[in-house]
Protein 1
Amino acid sequence: MAALAPNPKRLGIFFFFDADGVVDDYIETMLADMVKNTAELCVVVNGKLDSAGRARLEKFADKLIVRENVGLDAWAYKTALDSYGWSRLVEFDETVLFNATIMGPVYPFREMFDSMGTRDIDFWGVTWFHEYPEDPFGTTPEGYIPRHLQSHFHVYRRSLVSAPQFQDYWDHLPPMSSYLDSVGKHEIPFTKRFEKLGFKSDVYVNTEDMEGFTNQPILFAPKTLIAEKRCPIFKRRTFFHPYDDVLNQSVGNAAVELYEYLRDHTDYDTNLIWNNALRSMNMADLVKNLKLTYVLPTQALNPRIETDARPQKLALVAHVYYMDLLDQTLRYLRSMPEGADLIITVGSEEKAAQVRSACAEMPYHVEVRRIENRGRDVSALLVGVKDIIDNYDLVCFFHDKKVTQLTPGSIGDGFAYKCFENLLPTREFIENVVNKFAQEPRLGMMFPTAPNHADYFLPYSIAWGPNFEGTKELLRDMGVEVPLDPHKEPIAPLGTMFWFRPAALAPLFAKDWQWEDFPPEPNAIDGTLLHYIERGYGYFGQSVGYFNAWLFSDNFARIELTNLSYYTKEFSYGTALRFGGGSAMEMLKSLHSHKTLKMRLAHFAKTRLPKSWVAALKRVYLRRGGGK
């Protein structure tokens, strides 16, 4: 054991897995910096690897091994070690094992290697997992999870690699059939095992000061590690971590703080994050972890962002149907900045004349178009203005709204109010919307969340309703492949009103939609092409590299936060009285699995929901453990 001599000879072993066999550019960025510090790089791929990915990896790899997807990371590393043999491996001063679950480097790897090279150690890592008082895996001799080096980045010195105990460990590594095996049988016990044998370990990012704060600083305090401890890496998992665990261990701030720090205070290109995330992660996970919920001022202006991506040409496309609501509609239209284009679609010449007269003195370029009364607001956008949509950098699409199937009328009016007040409340708000699109060039759409008051509360919780398979089929037929999950809510404008970059909806407009593509009136209230498109809007954008976000005005956010706070308090109180207390996730688990809930299935049919929604609710209920 000794500090490294100058210019050490290192072997890098990089493990890669992607379900689709795609190598994203964050991998290239990481490997390009890593090879500056290694004499040789071996890349081991489990499972698929497409031709473009192979070409990318071959630019850096001295040896490329593509193997069956068995044994997870541990057996991929073992395969690489076996391919060299111990007599060759001991020629290297250090052997570096790292994988594609990390992103970086935020700072050059050389910084880290130079620092660690001065230390008298046998093996080291970048980050610790801190001691946990229990062993849920049942694999540690201590009966608890000891502090250990996280296996996304291990470095072994020659003093360890040449040791018989180390070689025996890898020669007789047990089979790994699951993620739990890899963690419980390899990652957790590895550090303590070799420390007990007398080998000395260390960590680059010392988080002793965070003991008791979190077991996983790299997941729950990544900004601190990067900003204050110069950690060169962060976890890809940060952006899709299961949100129940996020809220069990934190208030949910980690991912958004990391992203915004990287965006605003480092040279790391956040497009590398988006390119991988939008291809491989569910939008619902991204929205929750990254807090893609923007609350913008209605009376003040946020600092103006001047970039080449700033939208310059704006339009509002409005579909007008209810002439008794025209005054209300025009009031919101007047929030647009002067000089913007207004394209208003109507279903008759009589309506067109009325709208032209009402808009005559407005300070906009107004065009009123007569369209066919088929396909409602969806066709008004996809057919009615398809010839001009690419003329604009940013568009707001909205329509007048009157809900007639619910009583009292104030229920449906609340839905309309939520849409309008979070899209076009004031000119200041719209300037802030434009500014947000300038700040985030990968932002494709923004729209209000679905209503959650009165009769809308239950549909809010199962927003796919009977539309998942139809939406999935629509996307597939149009060549759109993105991660979809019927158990995760659609990130969609349920109300069909939104701000969008036309570039984000290019795959949708690429189809030459015709009026005949849409069902004639009367339309069903759910489960039609209109509803599939409504839920699919944002996924077209995701397929070409844009993310979606929820949008609130500061005024309406006051209402929303008050309502959600009330719901949370009342439902948690009722659940605790019936099934016992605990954390929110413990209470929800108890609620979903309680045997007495069998009776609830019989009650679903008595609700005022359409039968298709009742069936969807039953499926959700049974999936979450009801009726066991």
Protein 2
Amino acid sequence: MRILLIADAFNSLTQRLHTVLRDLGHTVCVQLALGEHALREGVDRTSPDLVLAPMLTTAVPEDIWSARPVLIVHPGPLGDRGPSSLDWALHDEAREWGVTVLQAAAEMDAGDAWASVPFRMPTGVAKSDLYRGEVAEAAVQAVLLAVERFADPDRTPVALDPSAPDARGRLRPYHDQSHRRIDWAVDDTRTVLRKLRAADSRPGVLDELHGTAYYLHGGHPEDELRDGTPGRILATRDGAICRATTDGAVWIPELRRSRAKGSPPAWKLPAADVLAAHLADVPDVPVSPEQAAYRATYAQIRYTEEGPVGFLEFSFPGGAMSTSQCRRLLAAYRAACTRPTSVLVLGPERDIFSNGIHLGVIEAATDPVSESWSNITAMNDLVEAVLTTTDRLTVAALPGSAAAGGLMLALAADEVWCREAAVLNPHYRLMGLHGSEYWTYTLPRRVGAETAHRLTTEALPLSASRAESLGLIEASVRDTPAGFRTRVARHAAELAASDSTAARLGRKKQRLEENEGTRPLASYRAAELDEMARNFRGGPGERYPELRRAFVLKTRPLHTPDHLTRLCAPPC
């Protein structure tokens, strides 16, 4: 079928559905919801068999849904209605939730149902992680079921009956700040974490610190620090602040200043950076990756071992990696390489692997050009360390998505294993960057020069299964986030025990030496950084500064980007 995706943004779920539908043979196009006129133009231009709305906060015009089928993906169980479905699910600590595909109607979320898929709510997971994980999985299942039913002329949607046994949802109001407000003098740790997680990553929890209003983003438990003065900042670590609760403490990684009328725009930044002027007497309490693995505390990097396999886990807010984060991860990687292991697995326990350099920190820097250079240099140092490791096999395990330099970090490993739900974006063009992280060395070696050129210029997302078929990754695994971690551990142990591992390491070292004799890695790095320096400085024809700022501020585009408006045929 010809399917038009309409969405407020080409976000993770929209990208996932874009890749899945194309892989199944559908022709897919995207139209951003930039006003009713733009939606009508998109529909007229593509003349779709089906319009699908995976992420939409405004109503579809009646003249569109009354003239052709429009299906709405709602992140709630059958019967659920309202704009804050996941927020309420987390706020109420629901044990089960779901995703429902509805026919567009005059009343939002009240149309007939084409499909509804339930899922069990994971514990201790924030909204953004939940959305990219269990919600996305259920959404894909529900959409594919709805598309299959829609294609059957004998199938019709089911009218919603609020009294039906399977209609567990209900109409809920907007989850505003009156529901999110933290009363530090009363709320215990569990309540604080529940409120923080229900607001991640948007809109955050509005609060006041040192006389200024901020939105708090992210929430993690703390197992040791105690004070007794609820709300007090006890410590910092990895850019996060630790605040006391009535019975413990929580870590808050990021803050966003509340924008007063006439004030400059603000975006999420590491909390300790935002409050630096007020933290002179607050101790920084680092925790080693080895210690963090056995504690219930906030740590961006953890390290564990299971026999001959080392696991270097990292998780950075939003997948962005600042200069300091890259350097800390490099130090942890080097330390892991001193351990008596034969396989080293890199990647988070769940969610995003990495999206590359931290555009928010760069935009906030006094000198964004200098910070861009520092960040890409630190990222390159990390990738180089992985590329030149010859005494053990390295595996990048991706439970979630990766993009740009973050994906190139993964491709530096000897093997890349992805959960099937991961969406990969092997390109930099949409940020006005040539790209670095040794991509001109790794990408053509995996997929060939022609395919590497196409992937980096098309700037479209890839499914993990499609990436495997291209040779970009070694394995695409269908499993839950928890199941994927278990399977990675088992396969890594098998790899370590294999009789061929020693011979493979010898070939790896020999191949690297031969490549260095032909063209040194330093040559690839220098050529890439020459281009990046030009991008960073701006000037005529260079759009990185403006595109970076638009990305950080989430500026609403004037039109749907050209690469999305093309009708994308199924991949060859």
Protein 3
Amino acid sequence: MTVRLGVLGPVRAWDGNGHTLPLKGPRHRQVLARLLIAHGRVVPVEVLVDDLWEEEDPPADAVGALRTFVAALRRALEPDRAPRTPPSLLITQGPGYALRTHRVDAHEFEHALTEARSDTDPARTAHTLEQALGLWRGPAYTDVAHTTWARAERARLSELRLGAVETLARARLDTHDTDRAIADLDAHVADHPWREQAWQLLATALYRAGRQGEALQVLRRARTLLAHDLGLDPSRALRRLEHDILHQADHLDEPERPTDVVERLWHSTARAYRAGPGPRARLESTVGLLRTLALTGPEGLVGARERRVEAIDAARELGDPELTARVIGAFDVPANWTRSDDPDQATRVVAAAEQTLTGLGHDAHRAVRARLLTTIALESRGARSPRPRRAALEAEELARESGDPALLAFTLNGRWMQTFHRTGLATERGRIGDELVRVAARQGAVSFEILGHLIGVQTGAALGDVERADHHVGTVESLARRHERPLVEVFTTWYRALRLDLQGQDPERVADAYRAAAEHTASAGMPGLEEGLLALALACLRSRHGLPWSQEPGTEWGPHAPWALPARLLAQDRAEEAALALDRFEDPGPGLLMEAHWALIAHAALTLDHRPALRRAHTALTPARGEQAGAAGGLFTAGPVSDLLERVEHALQPSSPESAGISTHGWPDGESHLR
């Protein structure tokens, strides 16, 4: 059952049909509110006890009482859960409890604000904000307004709401809906007289409505209230507005179109730049342009990649290590694939970063060092060496110490890239993605917010949690449309094909969807993703459904060939060669497709009852027992790891020389019907 939780007013819960769920008494709502404020993090039992009874002595059996509240909440939130089955929403983890839900009205509100801020169409912005503000049923967390632990979150949400009211008024002014803007702002400034931006918007709206005298009266009223209540003079913006209204300035009449502003700024900036700075400033500015270029689409990505090394080489030739460090670290383009598109270039970038770190020494500024270390972590994707992982961890620690959210977002990307040293880490990567979304959304760092949601898609797919993945897909597609990020569609197209597979659709239909996704990928400028992907996806599909193998016309195995080789040889009735390949294969390297590679090895080893390979596959895949094999990339699946492990464990029993129902004489031959 889908549960939606509400905190924008009294704490409430609703089922999938919108019916209110019974949450019992105030203590139950306090527990739920406290867990919601933690945003998915675990709240230890002792912290919950202290917070629930912060104004009084807790009862003798406070922990027992807390467990009673939790049990009642679980029954209310998941009434259809079978006895003795683990809860999926309010879970026990480590020393305490956590809520695992993405359907909270406050989250919906914040996502809507992010969309509205990035939308260049004021009519759409107004509609989005009207819907968002309609979610509010009263002050946030009304039930726990008296608590100290809710104070910061209530203040944060309240501030967001006030900002949304003012942004909505601005959007209405831009769409000439002046009367509604005036009505809303008049009430708004009465309730919140310290909001100078609201006074400014109200005066502007009155002026555009032809009420110049009232506009001036509003500004004078604002001046009086600010002086009387806060002892402040009006801001420079309010004083300037008063001057402009008195002189009937042209810019007050009609807002300039965004496209006109962009064109004017672009050309004027270009003219100023030609006049200008020296080589160092030009070089750093160029890297900023390359970073933006990389996000515009396939051609931009390829062009930015080619010119990045040139910029680094130019910086090094100037003999300035600090400049070189800035040039290397400024290319903070989010990365969400674990195989490099250009390994030679990546090697050169890593070498330059390492040499620059050595040249700067440990006296390098914290942020500079963190960016260089993160670059090493990102450009060393798929490496077996422990160095990139250590670099990612040190960079993250430096970023947290610095308190710089933009730097933290970049280093979280590096940390995520280095969470593939073993299988079974989807949940850890999901936590990184969730934090990345929160950090990036609050800073308006759209590129990293998009990355966080793509990680959410991958995590949901890896855990077989379609609802979670769907949530992130919807959000990331909206962000991509608003900010013109066409490469996002490559990943969401693959996910939709994977979704058909997870839902048990006909394999032929799934195969066609994978082919369509691969065709879409071919023009994306991401060879590290594209090479061999369709062949691997179809191989996993066939293995999962026990279908015969054949080489897909027009496909190559690329980097996946070593781990597909035993199964390919079996499909050609070359069992001895397949067994030899199983004797010699190297463990799959770190990456999003590690589990898929191990799954192909396991299927071939089951067919041949190759026990050494089975034992290696079992050891490697056991940490991922609760995941979907191969789905960590959000692209395709080889089926539940637990099912595959069960077959491997059965085959490894002394009494079972072969896996149940699996031939030891090679795989079915002949042409596959998946054409």
